[in-house]
Write a structure and sequence with these properties.
This protein is about 45% helix and about 20% strand. The chain is an alpha/beta fold and about 240 residues long. Keywords: DNA-binding, Phosphoprotein, Transcription, Transcription regulation, Two-component regulatory system.
Length: about 240
């Protein structure tokens, strides 16, 4: 899965490099800009997922730059500033900022705020996507389009049989329910489950896991509930 991109806009190079190094340690892809012009260029080229923005820049004011950024990006913006007055914070947030931290700051706290804003942004994006198309489901590394009968793992299309897809659909649409092999068979095959039919379901589940899971012996999507059956992992 691609790393999330963070644009750091600060003309103080030691601070810029420090922030980028902490972000890199957390597996983010960090880009440095030292003035407003560079920030706009990188924004257009890289489309970052979040922006860390200094208030005082050599060629523009951070709040003015924020207004420009907001014309082309909805990415969360965290302001960094040596200004501590409440009015400065109000102006920055009114310009389109999402958060405000004063210098000096703890890099660990900044990274924690970055993660919090990205989680919130991802949640809002997922909710919007589901509202726009309730047949499209996205999980960590897995995308399922129920209407188009399409399945993608890490962005790559995966071929599944009709029955395999119907089993996956049943589990995804009922994430809180644990289905026994008998219930799955009778729902998908639309007939009574005989003695050996539960084994058929087990084979289909095993095949699905091989196609979906990086480690089929330790599945994260279709999980087993001992002594009961199968369910879809809704916590992804």
């Amino acid at each position: 899965m691609a790393r999330e991109k963070i644009l750091v806009v600060d003309d103080e190079k030691p601070i810029n490099k420090l922030v980028c190094s902490y972000l890199a340690k957390e597996q983010f892809s960090a880009f440095s800009a030292y003035n407003g012009r560079q920030a706009l260029d990188i924004l257009r080229q890289e489309n970052p997922d979040l922006i860390i923005l200094d208030i005082m820049l050599p060629d523009t004011d951070g709040t003015d730059l924020c207004l420009e950024l907001r014309k082309i990006s909805n990415a969360p913006i965290i302001f960094l500033s040596c200004k501590t007055q409440e009015i400065d914070k109000i102006i920055a947030l009114s310009a389109g900022g999402d958060d405000y931290m004063t210098k000096p700051f703890m890099p660990g706290e900044l990274v924690a705020r970055v993660k919090a804003h990205l989680r919130r942004q991802n949640t809002l994006t997922a909710q919007t996507l589901q509202t726009q198309d309730s047949s499209l489901y996205e999980f960590e590394g897995l995308t399922v389009d129920l209407d188009a009968h399409e399945l993608f793992v890490d962005g790559q299309p995966v071929s599944v049989t009709t029955k395999e897809f119907e089993i996956l659909k049943l589990l995804i649409e009922n994430p809180r329910k644990v289905f026994s092999a008998q219930q799955i068979f009778e729902t998908i095959w639309k007939t009574n489950c005989m003695e050996n039919d539960a084994r058929t379901v087990m084979v289909y589940i095993s095949t699905l896991r091989k196609k979906l899971e990086a480690r089929p012996d330790s599945p994260k999507y279709i999980i087993s509930v001992r002594g009961v059956g199968y369910k879809f992992n809704q916590s992804l």
